[in-house]
Design a protein that fits this description.
With 447 residues, the protein is mostly helical. It contains 21 helices and 5 strands.
Length: 447
């Protein structure tokens, strides 16, 4: 007997609420109107019956598997499901052979592959001939960015549809459907009901499981408030995968919140990363990078504070050292911002590549030997400390290159003071351009 078939005692076994709530038609699917609404791409595919291979990219519990089953039913295709976690080459070969046999008999096959990104590159390449010749309609499901995780050859043959986490309104529709099936209201206060939806974090499957737990554990006639509800259900661990896209999304959110001087948003993203199990040293390294890249010389204390926070964390560890990270995030978020140093670095590197073989002007080269003096090394160099202003204004660029301006400080933070100094030196440079010209026979002095 097939393990999925009903047994003699199945009528005495209660089906899980998620199974009883599984949508049977497109109209039952909630929260994906951008794909299934009128004139939306997937809806057009269903209405026309022209179902081609595609990838469903979305978070857990947004209905990827259910949607694939409905599409197979609507397209009168045989539905075959595989998981890349549990399947190998032999399973794929069997699925393709059976699909080819069905094709010869006049029936198409929709092959649903869950977690398709877990197949390696060679296995992904194995899909190509069967997709191209129409043996299977491939529907791949992934929680990871297909651009990073799937072969370009496979992506070129499949559309990518992005599924969204379920909104509050979509979750409320699920709650209403559950109440219809259970023939009673969810035994929660309005506040507890809203908090339960918040715990689901857009995951419909998890939300249904939470509701089933509440139905099972609430006493007859009892209506649970927020605290009672939290005692009944176990709070979900944060959704965060340290080596996948969520990792990069959150550090990007932290970095951009800091750049935008939004202290509170930066603290939130930092807390999300730490609660998700991110290595605090990674966070500190990125914050140190931010100090030099986005604060720069607008506040020279930024880099020192970052290094001090890093050192404090390594001495204290978690959880005490987490406060050092918090202090650093607050400091960096409230610092004046400048990327002038980074811009100068990029411009100087570009000039160095363009003028890669020019030698320094002779007047700034030391002349430790008689021959070098005869060749003009150090001739006309003016020792800046010997000038009245401590500034000679001489040109230190290669003669064939001419003066360039790479660093342009902003009028904010400490760079405002730097800007004043640079303007003052430029004014002196223009006034002194003839007085200390190295082509004239002035006194010579080594560094």
């Amino acid at each position: 007997m097939n393990g999925l078939q009903d047994s003699l005692f199945s009528s005495n076994v209660s089906r899980p609420l998620a199974d009883r709530m599984r949508p049977e038609s497109i109209s039952d699917v909630v929260g994906q109107d951008h794909l299934l609404g009128a004139d939306a791409p997937l809806r057009r595919m269903i209405d026309t019956g022209n179902i081609s291979s595609f990838i469903l990219w979305g978070p857990p519990g947004c209905g990827k598997t259910t949607l694939a089953k409905i599409l197979a039913n609507n397209g009168k295709l045989h539905f075959v499901a595989l998981s890349a976690v549990f399947s190998g080459v032999a399973d794929l070969r069997k699925a393709f052979n059976e699909a080819e046999h069905r094709r010869q008999c006049g029936q198409g096959t929709l092959l649903f592959v869950d977690e398709i990104h877990r197949f390696n590159r060679a296995q992904q390449d194995g899909f190509l001939p069967y997709v191209e010749n129409g043996t299977v309609v491939l529907v791949g499901a992934t929680t990871e960015n297909p651009s990073f995780e799937l072969n370009s050859a496979l992506l070129s043959r499949c559309k990518v549809f992005v599924l969204k986490p379920l909104s509050e309104n979509a979750l409320e529709q699920l709650a209403a459907r559950a109440e219809d099936i259970m023939k009673k209201e969810l035994p929660l206060t309005s506040g507890a009901r809203a908090r339960l939806a918040g715990l689901a974090d857009g995951d419909g499957r998890y939300f249904i499981n939470l509701m089933e737990t509440v139905y099972d554990l609430a006493r007859p006639g009892e209506v649970l408030d927020v605290e009672q509800m939290l005692n009944v259900v176990q709070q979900r661990s944060p959704i965060y995968d340290k080596d996948r896209e969520g990792h990069y999304n959150l550090i990007s959110a932290l970095h951009k919140s800091l750049r935008g001087s939004d202290c509170d948003a930066a603290l939130y993203w930092m807390a999300r990363m730490i609660s998700g199990g991110e290595d605090p040293i990674y966070i500190l390294r990125r914050l140190t990078r931010f100090a030099v890249e986005d604060v720069g010389l607008a506040d020279p204390m930024a880099l020192q504070t970052a290094i001090a926070a890093w050192d404090a964390y390594e001495r204290l560890g978690s959880p005490e050292g987490d406060l050092a990270i918090t202090n650093l995030v607050i400091f960096l978020a409230t610092c004046p911002k400048s990327n002038a140093a980074e811009t100068a670095h990029i411009a100087a590197a570009k000039a160095a590549a363009e003028f890669s073989s020019l030698t320094p002007p002779a007047h700034i080269l030391n002349a430790p030997t008689k021959l070098m003096k005869e060749l003009g090394y150090n001739k006309g160099y003016m020792y800046d400390h010997d000038t009245p202003d401590g500034f000679s204004g001489q040109d230190y660029f290669p003669e064939k290159m001419g003066r360039r301006v790479f660093y342009r400080p902003f009028e904010r933070g400490f760079e405002r003071e730097i800007s004043k100094r640079l303007a003052y030196w430029q004014k002196l440079r223009e006034e002194l351009k003839d007085k200390y010209n190295p082509n004239k026979n002035y006194g010579e002095k080594n560094e």
